[in-house]
């Protein structure tokens, strides 16, 4: 792989849909694609790719897998999708299995960033191309947030900063519309705190809300496992610890955190009129909007996993077939939806 210095890279991936690419350059001036699996030869025959996903039964990742499969079929690529669940230990075994089955490229969403260095080394030793989607992976340590950019594996996904800013802005708009007092209102930020992209989203949401709310509302950070039940349990404890709060605004890393928080608030007797939830994903939010029951889920950012899956496969094929360098990051578009417009947005609610 090329290691030329002091060049900024641009890349475009044609995926048959509107996709916005966001590229970042390494702080050292070096290309960072060496973290994508070592020296990888181009493939002249049939290309075989394995897409390994955490939480593969989550709606977002189901959509991502569907988009990847559709793009693979279009390109004539063999694609295998593997559900890693939440098992970090199983991740390494499944990566090794994919390599043993002659996959030339691996696309992965790791259950735990701590396995990142081993995944990178395994791919590098096998001279297999490695690309991440959604979550970042560091080649040299377990914490992408503190990783040198030259060691981050190229990633396809969404911009955490942009998504969080949109969520925070909508939450601020809803807060001002509600006319609540800051004194008896709290915001809840709920996320799995060792996932870098989650931290990016929440940080940006906090900043955007603070800028747009017109009042200083106290925030409560809630550490979750990014599941609805995990968020529900942790938010329930937060509610109990703050009995004098009348109004709640909640956002998080994904729809699961917001939905779990809204359920906890409802179970605690907080009416939907006193809750502003802004989801991230919209795949759970739409279920609330499709029912006749009042809900605290006021809006959600629609992120289409299918776009990411398709773009990841296209990017991997470009690398394996044509030797095209991975972009350091490529971003798919997002849009804000609510009960009034989600059906017209193209969101598939299952």
UniProtKB/TrEMBL annotation:
Subcellular location: Cell envelope
Occurrences of domain Periplasmic binding protein (ranges): 53-324
Keyword field contains Nucleus: no
Keywords attached to this entry: Signal
Lineage top rank: taxon: Bacteria
UniProt keyword annotation of Signal present: yes
Region forming the signal peptide: 1-25
InterPro entries assigned: AraF (IPR026266), Bact_Solute-Bind_Prot2 (IPR050555), Peripla_BP_I (IPR028082), SBP_2_dom (IPR025997)
Family, similarity comment: Belongs to the bacterial solute-binding protein 2 family.
Protein name from the UniProt record: Substrate-binding domain-containing protein
């Amino acid at each position: 792989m090329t290691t030329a210095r002091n060049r900024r890279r641009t890349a475009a991936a044609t995926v048959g849909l509107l996709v916005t690419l966001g590229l970042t350059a390494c702080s050292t001036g070096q290309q960072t694609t060496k973290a994508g699996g070592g020296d990888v030869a181009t493939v002249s025959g049939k290309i075989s790719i394995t897409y390994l996903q955490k939480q593969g039964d989550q709606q977002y990742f189901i959509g991502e897998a569907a988009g990847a499969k559709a793009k693979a079929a279009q390109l004539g690529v063999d694609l295998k999708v593997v559900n890693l669940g939440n098992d970090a230990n199983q991740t390494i075994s499944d990566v090794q299995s994919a390599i043993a089955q002659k996959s030339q490229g691996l696309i992965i969403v790791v259950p735990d960033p701590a396995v990142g260095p081993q995944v990178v080394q395994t791919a590098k030793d096998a001279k297999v191309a490695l690309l991440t989607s959604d979550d970042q992976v560091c080649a040299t340590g377990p914490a992408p947030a503190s990783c040198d950019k030259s060691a981050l594996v190229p990633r396809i996904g969404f911009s955490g900063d942009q998504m969080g800013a949109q969520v925070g802005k909508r939450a601020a708009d809803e807060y001002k519309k509600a006319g609540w007092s800051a004194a008896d209102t709290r915001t809840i930020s709920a996320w799995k705190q060792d996932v870098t992209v989650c931290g990016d989203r929440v940080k940006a949401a906090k900043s955007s809300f603070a800028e747009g709310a017109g009042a200083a509302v106290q925030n409560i950070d809630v550490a979750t496992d990014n599941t609805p039940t995990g968020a529900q349990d942790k938010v329930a404890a937060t509610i109990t610890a703050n009995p004098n709060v009348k109004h709640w605004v909640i956002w998080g890393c994904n729809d699961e955190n917001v939905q779990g928080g809204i359920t906890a608030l409802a179970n605690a007797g907080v009416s939907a009129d006193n809750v502003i939830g802004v989801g991230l994903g919209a795949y759970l939010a739409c279920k609330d909007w499709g029912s006749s029951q009042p809900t605290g889920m006021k809006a959600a950012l629609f992120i289409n996993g299918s776009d990411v899956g398709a773009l990841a496969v296209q990017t991997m094929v470009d690398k394996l077939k044509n030797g095209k360098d991975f972009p350091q990051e490529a971003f798919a578009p997002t849009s804000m939806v609510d009960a009034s417009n989600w059906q017209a947005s193209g969101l598939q609610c299952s």
